[in-house]
């Protein structure tokens, strides 16, 4: 066992080393095909308008959970999504959500952006099941982390730290990694919005047992996707075109590698083919320049790079966005109307974003029948 742990730790270490020195987005094939099996999350019915409760961490009773007992059967779910419930860990680990929030609060804004993207990538590949976190064990079967669109995923250490603290308080079988990822994405949104975008995240996900690198490309939309491809991709996850536009607003934070918008697939810095604002284009050309062939990074939202707000939509309207997929939102009547609506400072986008994050968090969720509660987020339990 000790040996296995060492090997796994080594793999994890190698993985994290590789993370820091990656090449470009480097799509090996043209536009990935879109999977045809729609797996819709159940429709989300907003529960009673709960007031935005950025409750300062209330002292909670001592954990009632003892690590030695088998994990409790999942409580019968109520609303809003099948199998998921707000306050799922009320009894089994009442401090779970507080712990995740505390760990996320201490992360820097870049890592917070990474956590929101991690949640998206997790949910779009095999559902929200923490499979995005799995380290490769079988040398012949690379996991999602090794898929092309994994580029620059970050925030893994926050998930691990939160899970470790939860284990200390509630035992290792209490809270799933998939729920930690969902809470972390929600909390990163909360902090980056200056506590404006707060919402309940239903929980009760189990962790999946499969992670395959070759499933990332067909499931995650590429930055050179057309509006039709974006719609089809989100529809294959049971999400609407409007939700696609709403969730794209996450590109109001974080960074991108230059290769994501300047490559043989995406020629966004070419003035003769790109509709990008000339000022931004010349600035990006400068920032992307590299004597060493380094794939530099740039911020996605030049105006408020670390703030979750509706600035993204203003950037789309003024042609100050990085990706073809961002600009593509203006290429269809319904999505361009949604961009215009979301660009208004009336709080509508913020409300839609909350609901869309919850809906994304319900994609293909696992149950105890086809999932587990992992003791360590990168590693499948071996009983
Ligand atoms: C609509 C289709 C989408 C496409 C084509 C897309 C593509 C990308 C790409 C290419 C990057 C830059 C990666 C890099 O070069 O380092 C990126 C970054 C990011 N994306 Fe998306 N994305 C999409 C939707 C989403 C959604 C739904 C979310 C979350 C709700 C999201 C959140 C983010 C965040 C937060 C970053 C910055 C990450 C960081 O700074 O570490 N994206 N996206
Ligand atoms: C957990 O507690 C909150 C607050 O009292 C309540 O709204 C929620 O429904 C509870 N959830 C469960 C699953 O018990
Ligand atoms: C993906 O990889 C797995 C394991 O490496 C393999 O069994 C499977 O056939 C591959 N799927 C596709 C579509 O290539
Ligand atoms: C992403 O994939 C590349 C290979 O495609 C791999 O070298 C790298 O380690 C992966 N990144 C992460 C975060 O695991
Ligand atoms: C854009 O990408 C091409 C390769 O596709 C590269 O030759 C060029 O230097 C890049 N431009 C900038 C400004 O990074």
TrEMBL record:
Keyword terms: Calcium, Disulfide bond, Glycoprotein, Heme, Hydrogen peroxide, Iron, Metal-binding, Oxidoreductase, Peroxidase, Pyrrolidone carboxylic acid, Secreted, Signal
GO CC terms: extracellular region; plant-type cell wall
Catalysed reactions, semicolon-separated: 2 a phenolic donor + H2O2 = 2 a phenolic radical donor + 2 H2O
CC cofactor: heme b; Ca(2+)
Predominant location: secreted
EC number annotated for this UniProt entry: 1.11.1.7
Keyword Signal: yes
Cell compartments where the protein resides: Secreted
Signal peptide bounds: 1-23
Binding site for Ca(2+) 2: 252, 301, 304, 309
Catalytic-site annotation from UniProt: 121 (proton acceptor)
Coiled-coil residue windows: none
Protein name as annotated: Peroxidase
Species this chain originates from: Hordeum vulgare subsp. vulgare (Domesticated barley)
Gene: LOC123402703
